[in-house]
Amino acid sequence: MPLPMSRSALRRVKRLVVKVGTGTLTDRAGRFDRDNCARLASELAEVARGRKVVLVSSGAVALGAERLGLARSRGKPWDIPTKQACAAAGQPHLMAAWGEALGRHGLVTAQVLLTADDLASRKRFLNARRTFERLLDAGAVPVVNENDTVAVDEIKVGDNDTLAALVAGCVEADAVAMLTDVDGLYDRNPAEPGARLLRDVPRVTAEIERSAGGAGSERSVGGMITKVKAARRLGAQGVVTALLSGRRARALPALLAGEPVGTVFAPGAHRLSSRQGWLAAAARGKGVILVDAGARRALVEQGRSLLPSGVRGVQGQFGVGDPVDVAVDPARPFARGLAGYGADEVRRIAGLKTGEIERALGYKYLDEIVHRNDLVVLETGRE
Ligand SMILES: Nc1ncnc2c1ncn2[C@@H]1O[C@H](COP(=O)(O)OP(=O)(O)O)[C@@H](O)[C@H]1O
Ligand SMILES: N[C@@H](CCC(=O)OP(=O)(O)O)C(=O)O
């Protein structure tokens, strides 16, 4: 039987993000699992031959808790300062562990700590991209984690599955492999009897999301649902995602050889440009441009630019070049783009024909309020 397209595509991957979860780096008692880290490092070194690899590694909080001698009493989650203190204590040891383990295979590691805020700013996103690029050119393995000690709710990504998806967009990876403590995605929580491993997921449906709703391990943050949501986002950007065991020997090399391990989420046919990928995943709209149903159809179904005639109003304040959301219902934006006009200008030209822009403003930059090349339809926009 021929391999599904997405599995055979894995053989051709040149840029790979590998995300390693807490459960893969700690044993049942929550202690750092040096042996598994060493085994994974040897497999990472193997797959890094002929490929650029970025590692997104969790484990700082667990490692820090171990070093600080903090045990979590069952059912009682740590407060945020405790978690942040654990991350601060654990992160250098996590880096040291990867540095030593990958160093044994001749690989140099480099620490990259990010928050959502860093990636939402176009300037900082591009800076991060240049740093990644330089590191990869030098043959190093960037090891990424969230900058937990400074990341309060408003600026944090929140879990490393989502962070891995953002990093994949930043480095323009072709694939993301998430290593976890189960063999892949099951049709229900694998702790339940009769759970079946799903090998290939052509599309992340609502049913798939429901099946991944159960909580992860006590020490993990995201659980299965953040992995599935990250896979859905990556698919919409044209990137393939695989979910596999971080404990089973040789699962990662086997995956990249196209063998039937783990779960593979098929990517959508359309690969977003790097700027569109940033708009879709990392950027946050500074305001909302409200449009009518006709404009929505033109943008979503016909791939057109946004013209003033379909605009009904504006929420918030933004300048030329800022990211803005586009919506019929402001609670559910369906597209995001870079504004061709500032918010006050859009208010004045809303509903006009392009030929009337100059009369209304006294000048005209462009016909479009958001040009097609600077616009991306969000996943929710396609429903
Ligand atoms: N449908 C499902 N398929 C697989 N695992 C699931 C599912 N629903 C819930 N889970 C749980 O998700 C866990 C993996 O997520 P998580 O603990 O966050 O791992 P990691 O630390 O690798 O990020 C599994 O150990 C399992 O208990
Ligand atoms: N940044 C945190 C991990 C966050 C996280 O998403 O953990 P996990 O669900 O185990 O991948 C840490 O290093 O402990």
From TrEMBL:
GO terms for biological process, alphabetical: L-proline biosynthetic process
Domain of life, source organism: Bacteria
Keywords: Amino-acid biosynthesis, ATP-binding, Cytoplasm, Kinase, Nucleotide-binding, Proline biosynthesis, Transferase
Major localization class: cytoplasm
Domain PUA: start-end pairs: 287-370
PROSITE patterns: GLUTAMATE_5_KINASE, PUA
Catalytic reaction(s) noted: L-glutamate + ATP = L-glutamyl 5-phosphate + ADP
Coiled-coil ranges from the UniProt annotation: none
Entry annotated with the keyword rRNA processing: no
Broadest EC class assigned to this enzyme: transferase
Binding site for ATP: 19, 180-181
Matches recorded under Gene3D superfamilies: Acetylglutamate kinase-like (3.40.1160.10), PUA domain (2.30.130.10)
Assigned EC number: 2.7.2.11
Database matches in InterPro entries: AceGlu_kinase-like_sf, Asp/Glu/Uridylate_kinase, G5K_ProB, Glu/AcGlu_kinase, Glu_5kinase, Glu_5kinase/COase_Synthase, Glutamate_5-kinase_CS, PUA
Family: Belongs to the glutamate 5-kinase family.
Listed PANTHER family: GLUTAMATE 5-KINASE, ISOPENTENYL PHOSPHATE KINASE
Name the UniProt record assigns to this protein: Glutamate 5-kinase
Species in which this protein is naturally found: Anaeromyxobacter dehalogenans (strain ATCC BAA-258 / DSM 21875 / 2CP-1)
Gene: proB
